Amino acid sequence: MTDRPIVVGLTATFIGLTALLAVGGVVVHPVLLFVAIPFGAAAYLLSLHARGRLDDRIRSRTVSRAATRQRERERRARDRTRRNRTDAFGADARGTERGRPGGTSAAGRRRAGAAGGGDRMGLEAAYRTLGVDPDADEETIKRAYRERAKSLHPDAESGDEEAFKKLTRAYDRLTKR
């Protein structure tokens, strides 16, 4: 439908109306300038259509937006897959334990083992350590941790450093799912 006389005629008409309204807006009343804006936009779109470029622009923008949305969906799916791919010990797909700089690589396990924190805790053990049910909500878990931490903290009279570390690992395991 390029170079059809009716489209070219409408384009010329809208360009003329835009010019007339713009001049009227300067000479008579500034409100006419705002009225000229839609006529100018219509003239622009008709000129694109008359030259055959409107379809090309719409098609290219639609394709690029669809491709962008598809890439974004794929990125979100990859992120969800990475977050969901954790083993029973809290290690993610890259082999690093969440929230731990040493990770679960062989070197990280050796460092953790040398430091005395080498046991990786599963969900069941974490619930047992905190003394809560598996269907406990986050507030209950937090309350149980605080109560046990008061008695096990190394600065307390009956404090046990190893038991406190185990309690902290259990709390981290249950709150960072």
Automatic annotation (TrEMBL):
* A GO biological process held by the record: protein refolding
What keywords is this UniProt entry annotated with? Chaperone, Membrane, Transmembrane, Transmembrane helix
Location of region: Disordered: 62-120, 136-164
> Where are stretches of biased composition, namely Basic and acidic residues?
139-164
GO terms (molecular function) for this protein are: unfolded protein binding
Under the cellular component aspect of Gene Ontology, which terms does the record hold? cytoplasm
Could you tell me which residue ranges the J domain spans?
A: 125-177
InterPro entries, alphabetized: DnaJ_domain, J_dom_sf
Which stretches are transmembrane?
32-50
Q: What is this protein called?
A: DnaJ domain-containing protein
Q: Which organism is it from?
A: Halopenitus malekzadehii
